[in-house]
Design brief:
Distance between the termini: 31 Å
Strand content: 35-45%
Radius of gyration: 19 Å
CATH architecture of the largest domain: Sandwich
Largest sheet: 6 strands, antiparallel
Number of strands: 22
Strand order of the largest sheet: 2-1-11-10-7-8
Number of helices: 1
Structural class: mainly beta
Number of domains: 2
């Protein structure tokens, strides 16, 4: 159990490291009850925001949300009860984003959670969010793409998002159409919060960086 830790990526605690020791563990702001509490300074985190229990059969912790005022997200999706916190998992609690690291598998420089692409039109359920947590991610209908969308409107590799000096750049990888906010993108463009992206004729996306997600999820400080 002692090999796991949380590294804060966004929020007031950004840059801090929290080691997970004990079972169970409560995550929250100072004042939460529990012998193994991990405490954050971020005001949008509830006093008892989540509970971690060790799963010996899975060799990792299990996450359960305990906040009704500020629901949690796991890898950009609403946290389901019993979610497993494996190496690299991203947890969002209010404006706080932390990454789970396992010292047995830890990379020298883990890449942060950068935001999500929200599907507005396409082959999957509208509103599906795809988390971006690599410095280069490909989008297309090929199963090998980081963001796989099985739409005939897309090329096998239609586009990529790459990071330049901490800013996302949308780059065409196909001769098929790419538009951002209605404008054709022949060579690439920096993405701004809430940009509307159209790939081909049938896939529409919206870019939601961490700053937008934090405002979307940010409640008033919990009592």
């Amino acid at each position: 159990m002692g090999r796991f830790k949380l590294v804060a990526k966004e929020g007031l605690d950004s840059g801090r490291v929290f080691y997970l020791r004990g079972d169970p563990i409560t995550l929250g702001r100072p004042g939460a009850d529990g012998d193994s509490t991990v405490e954050f300074d971020e005001p949008s985190v509830s006093r008892v925001h989540a509970l971690l229990k060790w799963r010996a059969d899975q060799d990792c912790y299990e996450f359960s949300n305990r906040s009704f005022t500020s629901p949690s997200r796991i890898n950009g999706e609403p946290a389901s009860s019993g979610a497993l916190l494996v190496h690299g998992t991203l947890i969002q609690m209010g404006a706080l984003v932390v990454q789970v690291l396992d010292s047995h598998k830890e990379l020298p420089d883990p890449e942060p959670f950068m935001g999500c692409l929200e599907l507005l039109q396409g082959p999957e359920v509208t509103g599906t969010r795809y988390p971006l947590h690599r410095v280069k991610m490909t989008i297309g209908r090929s199963p090998e793409c980081d963001m796989h969308l099985a739409s005939p409107a897309l090329s096998l590799i239609h586009a990529s998002i790459e990071w330049y000096e901490k800013l996302p750049v949308l780059l065409p990888k196909s001769s098929r159409e790419i538009y951002v906010n209605g404008n054709p993108i022949p060579q690439g463009t920096f993405l701004r919060p809430n940009d509307f992206i159209l790939l081909g004729t049938g896939v529409a996306l919206r870019w939601l960086p961490v700053s937008v997600l934090a405002k979307e999820e940010r409640p008033a400080p919990a009592p």
